[in-house]
Structure formats: C-alpha cells, structure tokens
Design brief:
Shape: globular
Number of strands: 11
Largest sheet: 6 strands, mixed
Number of helices: 12
Oligomer: single chain
Strand order of the largest sheet: 1-2-3-4-5-6
Structural class: alpha/beta
Radius of gyration: 18 Å
Strand content: 15-25%
Order of helices and strands: HHEEEHHEHHEHHEEEEEHHHEH
CATH superfamily: Ribonuclease Z/Hydroxyacylglutathione hydrolase-like
CATH topology: Metallo-beta-lactamase, Chain A
Distance between the termini: 14 Å
Helix content: 25-40%
CATH architecture: 4-Layer Sandwich
CATH class: Alpha Beta
Length: about 300
C-alpha cells in the first residue's frame, strides 16, 4: 500500500488543479456557507484515483463507549425515546495495512460527555483501538472534539501515533486555542508532532480515500469519502448529523443543542442537503459517527465489520 508524503500530495494536487486555486470561478466548498457545487462528487471520485495503489477492501468499526440522550436532543422534533450515541472509530482496510478514521478516547474524556452521569465505557475496546492506531499507516480525524481526537493526543504512544496523524490547520487552531476540554489541549510544541495540512475543498490522502472540508459542527470538521475495490462507496460524515435521520429528514439538532456546541446552522443544512442528494441519487453508504441503530444494521448486512483488524 502506497501513501504519498504531504509535500508530494500537494505537488500532485497542484498539477491536477485539485484543492488549490484554479481557473474555476466558484469554490467547491467555500468558507462562507452556500450550497456545495453540483459536480463536487465527480471531482471527489476523480481525486480518489489520484494516489496510486490498491484500493481498500473493507470497512471495520469499533464502539468503545455509549452516551444516552433523549432523541429530542438529537434531532428537531425528536421524541423522549432514549437514543444511544455510539462512540466509535472506523478502519479502512487495504491489502497491506489500514487507515483509521477517528481515534476514540480514554475514560476521563468519556466522562465529560456524561454530564455527571455514569455511562458505558469499555477500556479493553479502547486498548484494541490504540493498537490499531499504533499499527495504522495513516490516521485522519473528522473533527476536533474529544471523542474523536483524544486517542491521538492522550496516549502513551503519542509521538509514534502523531507522526502519521493528519490534522487540519483549523483543527489544530481549535485544539491549541479553545479546545472543547482542557484534556485535549495541544501546545504549539505538541502540534508540531502531527502532520498539519490545509486544503481548499477536498484532498486525496490514500488510494480511494478523500477528505472533504465540512465546517459547521466545528471549524475543522471534515467528511471522509472511501471507495472500495468492490466499487462500493462510503461517506463518513462525522457529526454533521448524529443519526441518519438527520440526513433523511433534513433536520438539524435542536437549537439548544446547536447553541451549546456553537454550530453554524446554515453550513450544516447545506452539508445535509448535499449528503442526502449523493445518498439518494448516487447510492453512497452514509455513516454518521454515532448512529447505533445504523451501525447494527450495516454490520448485519455485512457492509461493515464489527471488529478491527490488527494484522
């Protein structure tokens, strides 16, 4: 499995006119929110071929913890039914290794999300996730919240893991200046251990894998497109929506939840609209990070695996 070094990637993108200033009049994903370009997926699919090498062959995930909320906290118009938020990380498996999407968290960080409640956490599963991170070829992070990024910060193997972890400049800015919690704060010196990248719209980082800029939930939020050798396409949407129903119904989180997080309503709605369109018209398998019901369904259909590969 081949991965281009960041400098080589940027050189290739410059040649292709991807992710840098180009002759196009519009920006595919602008800093000021408006609708995504209608041909964005076409560009992403082309970018997925930019890095040479075998495509990934399967997707796995691991759940290391749960948070419980009423559905009314998750989606506008939701009931008081209990919603299980699965705390997860994903693995794109290649013939010769794997790429990790997100990194989990230790139990101290997990307790932050309980708001004083004791909620399920499996330290043994997080230990397995740490092994997968240490052995990964590359690690990408959907956004800079503790349940997604703490595993590459609060770890005894931080230097080893950081050397193959891509963080965007916006993610680093958040983590160094106003992190979600003190436990995930990065000093400027610590930040230099990571591969810090910046891109305009989308960025291919491995064969079949493309990062897609998607600020709104956080300033550094991004989605991850994955195309398998089987030609099946996945879109990991991080926390654009916490359930697939957010996408299907084009409904955001309630205003009180959005205000607590500091989200951009306009940006998120544009992102949900584009996600729904590519899901409905192009057949992409859309995976929010926390949808317990969806993850069980995809596992039962053998569209994702429920255990991480460690060799």
């Amino acid at each position: 499995m081949k991965f281009l070094k960041p400098c080589a990637l940027l050189g290739l993108l410059a040649i292709l006119g991807i992710g840098i200033s180009s002759a196009r009049a519009e920006t595919l994903i602008p800093d000021v929110p408006h609708r995504y370009a209608t041909d964005l997926l076409t560009h992403i699919r082309a970018a997925a071929k930019a890095v040479p090498g075998p495509l990934p062959i399967r997707i796995n995930f691991i759940k290391i913890a749960e948070s419980h909320r009423p559905l009314s906290d998750i989606i506008v118009g939701g009931s008081q039914q209990d919603y299980v938020s699965a705390r997860t990380a994903f693995q794109a498996v290649f013939p010769g290794g794997w790429v990790m999407i997100d990194s989990g968290m230790d139990e101290t960080v997990h307790k932050f999300f309980g708001f004083g409640r004791a909620e399920p956490y499996w330290a043994d599963r997080n230990a397995i996730l740490q092994q997968a991170l240490i052995a990964a070829k590359l690690i990408v992070i959907t956004h800079e919240h503790g349940d997604h990024v703490a595993g590459v910060i609060r770890t005894d193997a931080r230097e080893e893991i950081a050397a193959k972890t891509l963080l965007t400049r916006a993610q680093v800015q958040t983590l160094t200046t106003y992190p979600q919690m003190p436990e995930i704060h990065l000093t400027p010196e610590m930040a230099r251990s990571y591969i810090v990248i910046d891109y305009e719209s989308y960025l291919p980082v491995a064969p079949g894998i493309v990062l897609i800029k998607a600020p709104g939930h956080t300033p550094g939020h991004q989605m991850v497109y994955v195309r398998l050798a089987s030609e099946r396409e996945y879109l990991f949407i991080g926390d654009v929506g916490w359930t697939l129903d957010n996408v299907k119904q084009l409904k955001l989180r309630p205003e009180t939840t959005m205000r607590r997080i500091g989200e951009s309503e306009q940006a998120l709605m544009f992102e949900l609209t584009w996600i729904k369109e590519v899901m409905d018209t192009e057949g992409l398998i859309v995976i929010p990070s926390h949808d317990e019901i969806l993850l069980k369904d995809l596992t039962a259909k053998q569209l994702i695996g429920g255990e991480l590969t460690l060799q």
